[in-house]
Amino acid sequence: MKIIRSITSMRNRIKEMRKKAKTIGFAPTMGCLHQGHISLAHQSVKECDVTVMSIYVNPMQFGPREDYKKYPRDLKKDVELAKKAGVDYLFVPSDKNMYPEGFSSKVSVTNVTERLCGASRPGHFEGVTTVVLKLFNIIMPDTAYFGQKDAQQAIVIKKMVKDLNMPLKIKTLPIVREDDGLAISSRNSYLSKPQRLRALSLYQALSKARQMIQQGERNPGKIIFKMKRLLRRGKFVKIDYIVIVDVPYDGSSHPEAFPYNHAWFFRVDTADTNYQNGDILTISGAPVNGADDVFSFKVDGINASLAQAELEDIRVVPDPYFGRASGTSPGWEASKYEHVIQFQNLPDKCSVRIYTISGDLVRTLDHNPGDGGTVEWDMLSEDRLSISSGIYLYHVESQYGNHVGRFAVIK
Ligand code: AMP
Questions:
Q1: Pick from 105, 154, 345, 393: CA 20 to 30 A from residue 307's CA?
Q2: Could you tell which of 150, 153, 185 is best to mutate to test the pocket of ligand 1, judged by most ligand atoms within 8 Å of the CB?
Q3: What residues pair up with 410 in beta bridges, in sequence order?
């Protein structure tokens, strides 16, 4: 494998190969290679006479507050992996070579870049199309390989190639995942152990969506609602977007409204609020056409399987309880609830039994419909004696199933 740094020598090599009528496959990357990149190289080696891979962390596709500077770079390891994968030429240009003084051109592909990732990363796709066009002009491949992991990117590149009559084929290859399902990415190295665990909720949400669609669900609102729940459970609090789009995506339809172009969904977020009988919800920004508008609402009642899944959301606040409530737990007001422990997110009707670690029943509390999902414990036993420090177990019994947990009291 040859490592080439200058554009001129890369062009000369390509000229030689063209003379010999060799077909050229190309996989552009930003390096820190992993099995996702390698799958592109393998496919190229299989299909083309010569495989070129580029490694270039392209500054133009990073926003001012993005991770250009700390993007992982490891050329030594990349060289090893590319060689092993059968790459013939590793093209590693410099910034000076790619963007010399006075560089001022940009390639912009409209309609397919404004939404989805384009909405959260302004300018990103212009950076991508500009650098990819430059690389295509240098390498002049017959086929270029991209990963489906960056689905919108592949769509944008295909559109650019079609619109600008570029003489090459674009192939999109499947996502390569870790054993547990997380898509492999150079940026996964940023994740701490707990973040890495939480990131799995992305795969779980996608798998859930696929399962729902395979089982016949065709309401995008319902699928997205379920996905958001799973992501929230994984504490993935900042969701940029979830949309379900037509394939091929051309950016023209508003994805979330499809296929209900004449219907509006009002989603009530029961995950964050415990609604009570008699609560009044106000809809703002609704598309009101006039006095003849009729809105009808249907409450499906409690979904037993959802309610069972939600038993996992039950939590004890504060946990641990320190002598006097420390006020550090979220949603905890120290002065008001001193000497009180709350069991939150309870199902409508249930009993909470509290046990010592050796299995003695300390107290039974009941929660009834209308109690708002929370029951308070004054930290007294059935005999009205103050409890001591230690680990306690609790068991919630409801018509939807049981939930067991533990908490600590430090006095
Ligand atoms: P990057 O180095 O992140 O710019 O990625 C270079 C190419 O590798 C792009 O076409 C990506 O879509 C592709 N790629 C990155 N990760 C994966 C993966 N896990 N599976 C398949 N392709 C990938």
A1: 393
A2: 150
A3: 322
Q: Could you tell me the sign of the dihedral formed by the alpha carbons of 231, 232, 233, 236, in that order?
A: positive
- Using CA positions, which residue lies closest to atom 22 of ligand 1? 147
Q: pTM of the full predicted structure? A: 0.67
* 118 and 265 belong to one structural domain: no
Question: What integer pLDDT is reported at residue 268 of this predicted model?
Answer: 67
Distance CA 267, CA 209 (A): 18
Residue type, 217: E
Do both 47 and 111 map to the same domain? yes
Please identify, by atom number, the ligand 1 atom nearest to the C-alpha of residue 149. 12
Q: Is the CB of 26 under 6 A from ligand 1?
A: no
Cβ contact 138:18 at 8 Å: no
Determine the residue of 26, 29, 78, 155 to mutate for testing ligand 1's pocket, defined as the one with the most ligand atoms within 8 A of the Cβ atom. 29
**Do 134 and 282 sit in the same domain of this protein?**
no
Atom of ligand 1 nearest to the CA of 185: 16
For the chain of 411 residues, list the mean pLDDT of each consecutive stretch of 10. Answer: 98 97 98 98 98 98 92 97 98 97 96 88 96 98 97 96 97 96 95 89 94 89 85 74 82 48 56 71 64 66 74 88 58 54 91 96 92 89 92 95 94 79
Give pLDDT, residue 218.
82
Per the structure, the complete domain to which residue 338 belongs is given by 313-410
Per-residue pLDDT, 214 = 92
343 Cβ inside 6 Å of ligand 1 = no
Instruction: Give the count of domains, the chain.
Output: 3
Measured in Å, residue 37 CA sits from the centre of ligand 1 at 5
* Pocket of ligand 1 contains residue 127 by CB under 6 Å: no
- For residue 305, how far is its CA from the centre of ligand 1 (angstroms)? 37
136 with 198, same domain? no
Element (H, E) at 35: helix 35-47
Rg (CA), the chain: 28
- Is the distance from CB of 145 to CB of 27 less than 8 angstroms? yes
Ligand 1, closest atom to CA 33? 2
Query: What was the pLDDT predicted at 126?
Result: 97
Same domain, 230 and 363: no
Catalytic residue numbers, as ranges: 37
CATH of residue 379:
2.60.40.1930
